[in-house]
């Protein structure tokens, strides 16, 4: 015990001496006048008197060590910072993200510390710019607006987002959750209680994913069910797809893949496979479940997530291209992939609902009917006699880095691809 006390005392002495050396080093580095450190800055920056009066003051400012973050003479960075705004905090706070995180807060990964923290002082703990969920909804505004309107709100969300989420990163769960989804839910909702079991038709749902049916934030439906509920679930007919609750394998489905869905959606499946081209996920082992949630969803058609996010999980090249595009096609940027494509099957290339070269565009663009340029099946593309001229001969349907979704920078460059005689 005595050895431990002596060790702690020595540590305090060393740290104190180190702090004094740093202070002295700063004075020598910038050749400050005696007693000028910190006070010299505050003589001009008198607005800091108000900042110094707040409850929580950032340690460098509290010690009047402005040069801990700023260079007093010159800098390549704004506010005369010693480093860029994305890295200056990490000079001291290097361990905000764990060594092997499962999920990381994007704002932290991007070095946007000051979106949540005031670098000088605050009236809130940890120098936060706002307190509780009000801070989170600064960025997660759509979620905040939605929760303000829903009829049923999850109690933890009402009190503090940090009941379930970590702030900077999480080693144990996705989406910054403190642990796996079900482990987190079962911390409050005991699955062995009679009422809980009755509500879930005596199925051992503690082994399933709670968010497959429930919205963890809030909902207009009792029990925090998602907005759109699959008919068998709404009718409490779990055994329509799963084995009986009393069986040895109650959560097992009666048939794997698309065969299970076909039991109810037979006409739709027949129409799908009657076409020339089928979307490959339907042919995979997951079948319909590659895109759809079998229980409930916030999105129309029981999609696992909004269409744009869902499609871009596989078609990420299209998403990356959008970031470069100057001229953008609205259906693409708004995530309305189903506006042009059939998500199940089609008789046309690229799974479009109509021929992508011309007919498809006419659904929205009336000017296509009176274009002065020869276009349509009878107009042969001079570059390739096997092709006809259509909208996509000059325009890229998902957008390009050029105006009017052209393949080339100028109108002239587009035209001379066919009209070579006019090249200058």
Task: Give an account of the 3D structure.
By secondary structure, the protein is of the alpha+beta class. Among the domains are: 22-98, no CATH class; 226-305, no CATH class; 311-422, no CATH class. The chain is 29% helix and 8% strand. It contains 17 helices and 14 strands. It has helices at residues 2-29, 39-44, 48-52, 59-62, 106-109, 133-139, 141-149, 155-159, 181-186, 194-199, 231-234, 258-262, 266-273, 307-312, 316-324, 330-333, 411-415; strands at 56-57, 103-104, 121-122, 152-153, 169-170, 218-219, 228-229, 277-278, 296-297, 327-328, 345-346, 376-381, 384-389, 399-400. A two-stranded antiparallel sheet has the order 1-3. Strands 2-5 form a two-stranded antiparallel sheet. β12 and β13 form a beta hairpin. α6 crosses α7. The protein is flat.
Tags for this model:
424 residues, alpha+beta, 14 strands, 29% helix
Low-confidence stretches: 11-25
What is the arithmetic mean of pLDDT? 88
What structural class results from the helix and strand content?
alpha+beta
Percent in helix: 25-40%
Fraction in beta strands: 5-15%
Please state the CA-atom Rg, rounded to the nearest Å. Answer: 31 Å
Number of strands: 14
Largest sheet: 2 strands, antiparallel
What does the overall shape look like? flat
Give the strand line-up of the largest sheet.
Answer: 1-3
Specify the number of helices: 17
Provide the fold topology:
Elements: H1 2-29, H2 39-44, H3 48-52, E1 56-57, H4 59-62, E2 103-104, H5 106-109, E3 121-122, H6 133-139, H7 141-149, E4 152-153, H8 155-159, E5 169-170, H9 181-186, H10 194-199, E6 218-219, E7 228-229, H11 231-234, H12 258-262, H13 266-273, E8 277-278, E9 296-297, H14 307-312, H15 316-324, E10 327-328, H16 330-333, E11 345-346, E12 376-381, E13 384-389, E14 399-400, H17 411-415
Antiparallel strand pairs: 1-3, 2-5, 4-6, 7-9, 8-11, 10-14, 12-13
Helix pairs in contact: 6-7
């Amino acid at each position: 015990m005595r050895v431990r006390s002596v060790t702690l005392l020595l540590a305090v002495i060393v740290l104190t001496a180190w702090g004094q050396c740093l202070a002295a080093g700063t004075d020598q580095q910038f050749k400050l006048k005696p007693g000028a450190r910190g006070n010299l800055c505050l003589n001009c920056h008198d607005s800091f008197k108000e900042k110094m009066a707040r409850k929580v003051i950032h340690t460098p400012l509290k010690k009047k060590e402005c040069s801990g973050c700023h260079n007093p003479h010159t800098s390549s960075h704004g506010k005369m910072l010693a480093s860029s705004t994305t890295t200056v905090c990490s000079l001291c706070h290097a361990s905000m993200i764990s060594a092997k995180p499962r999920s990381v807060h994007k704002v932290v990964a991007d070095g946007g510390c000051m979106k949540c923290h005031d670098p000088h002082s605050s009236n809130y703990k940890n120098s936060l710019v706002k307190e509780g969920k009000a801070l989170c909804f600064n960025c997660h505004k759509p979620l905040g607006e939605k929760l303000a309107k829903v009829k049923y709100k999850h109690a933890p969300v009402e009190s503090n987002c940090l009941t379930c989420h970590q702030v900077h990163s999480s080693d144990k769960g996705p989406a910054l959750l403190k642990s796996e989804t079900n482990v987190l839910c079962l911390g409050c909702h005991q699955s062995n209680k009679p009422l809980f079991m009755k509500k879930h038709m005596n199925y051992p749902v503690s082994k399933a994913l709670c968010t497959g049916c429930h919205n963890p934030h809030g909902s207009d439906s009792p029990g925090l069910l998602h907005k759109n509920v699959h008919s068998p679930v709404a009718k409490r007919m779990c055994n329509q797809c799963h084995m009986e609750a009393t069986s040895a394998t109650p959560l097992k489905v009666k048939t794997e893949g698309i065969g299970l869905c076909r039991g109810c959606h037979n006409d739709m499946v027949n129409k799908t496979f009657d076409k020339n081209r089928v979307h490959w996920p339907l042919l995979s082992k997951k079948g319909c479940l590659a895109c759809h949630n079998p229980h409930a969803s916030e999105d129309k058609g029981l999609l696992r997530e909004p269409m744009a996010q869902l499609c871009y999980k596989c078609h990420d090249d299209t998403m990356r291209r959008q970031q470069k595009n100057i001229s953008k096609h609205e259906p693409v940027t708004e995530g309305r992939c189903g506006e042009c494509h059939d998500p199940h099957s089609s008789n046309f290339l690229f799974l479009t609902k109509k021929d992508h070269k011309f007919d498809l565009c006419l659904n929205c663009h009336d000017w296509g009917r009176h274009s002065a340029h020869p276009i349509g099946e009878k107009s042969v593309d001079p570059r390739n006699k096997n092709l006809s001229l259509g909208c996509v001969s000059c325009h890229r349907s998902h957008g390009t880095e050029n105006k009017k979704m052209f393949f080339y920078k100028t109108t002239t460059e587009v035209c001379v691809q066919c009209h070579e005689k006019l090249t200058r």
